[in-house]
Design brief:
Elements: H1 2-10, H2 12-32, E1 37-45, H3 52-62, H4 69-77, H5 80-92, H6 94-103, E2 114-119, E3 122-129, H7 132-200, H8 221-233, H9 244-256, E4 269-273, H10 286-320
Antiparallel strand pairs: 1-3, 1-4, 2-3
């Protein structure tokens, strides 16, 4: 114990110089180190969606009956939950952050300066700069910038999905028309065979008293059969054969008349905690930096003394040999 005390007393100047070096280094780093200021906000989804104008424009779409996937997606796109989900996804997106940083090229922002953390239905956003006066303003600008990008994304997705829905409706109409044409063709062939049999049997008029179960409607007579064949050949509106075709045509017309105005202000989020200007800079502060300098200075001085003494002991042992 006494030996250790003698070592420290003997090397007190060395220990003091190492300690002073670390303290001065921490002071210089603390003075040079740029202060960082963080503004934060908490955003949540709007519970009661007030997009009345948007709902009014989408009303014809909501009245359509369809089980197509594209139609279900159309109804979902402008729902409050979907709008808010896309909004938060973009807030977190590095691509969206980079676009904003590029727009604010003199702000000195980096990707690490903008953070977004989800907490259930809330999103905690922080933005850090070297100026406490601009942190709040930049955070508000970033949220507004993301909101605008969300609206552009939604309008574009809606238009693409609408085109897909129209295409699927037209394809379905084409398929149903083909079914109707096939039904008409089969029925015409059936009547033509019956007509030939009736003509060969000199059966011109309809026979009322006959079995109701007939493979061919021969007993209708050639006169009726002739008119039925002519009627079927002249059918152009196939909804007479398949009523669903009329519904598909109405849906196509309704979809064609739907146009969403891009200038409608969407309401899908609100501030639970509004951005405020930071009052204190981020840790570590200047005092903490100096404290670290003292602690590490003491440890470094002790380590230096031990290393020095060990080197001297090794040299002494070699000299004796």
């Amino acid at each position: 114990m006494l030996l250790q005390q003698n070592i420290f007393i003997k090397n007190k100047k060395l220990m003091l110089s190492v300690l002073i070096t670390f303290i001065f280094a921490s002071i210089i780093i603390g003075l040079i180190k740029e202060k960082k200021w963080t503004s934060s906000a908490v955003i949540t989804a709007v519970v009661n969606n007030e997009n009345l104008e948007l709902r009014k424009q989408l009303l014809p779409l909501l009245e359509i009956e369809s089980n197509l996937n594209s139609y279900n997606k159309l109804k979902e796109i402008y729902s409050n939950n979907y709008l808010y989900k896309i909004f938060v996804d973009l807030l977190e997106s590095n691509e969206n952050k980079n676009k904003f940083i590029k727009l604010k090229n003199n702000s000195g922002l980096t990707l690490a300066d903008i953070t977004v953390n989800r907490n259930n239905s809330n999103a905690n956003i922080t933005l850090t700069t070297n100026n406490n006066k601009v942190s709040k303003d930049l955070l508000i600008e970033y949220v507004d910038f993301t909101k605008d990008n969300t609206e552009k994304y939604i309008v574009n997705e809606f238009n693409l999905t609408m085109l897909q829905f129209k295409s699927e409706l037209k394809l379905k109409l084409k398929i149903e028309n083909k079914k109707a044409i096939n039904k008409i063709s089969i029925e015409i062939k059936r009547l033509e065979i019956a007509y030939k049999i009736a003509k060969a049997s000199n059966l011109n008029k309809s026979v009322k008293q006959c079995s109701q179960i007939n493979i061919l409607p021969v007993f209708l007579g050639t006169t009726v059969l002739k008119y039925e064949i002519k009627y079927l050949n002249n059918i152009n509106d196939y909804e007479i054969i398949i009523p669903e075709i009329m519904s598909i045509k109405q849906n196509i017309k309704a979809v064609s008349n739907i146009k969403i105005a891009t200038m409608i202000p969407f309401v899908f989020y609100e501030y639970q905690k509004k951005p405020v200007s930071p009052l204190t800079s981020n840790k570590p502060t200047f005092k903490i930096m100096v404290l670290f300098g003292i602690v590490f200075g003491v440890l470094a001085s002790l380590l230096t003394v031990f290393i020095k003494e060990q080197v001297l002991i090794n040299r002494s042992n070699k000299t004796r040999k």
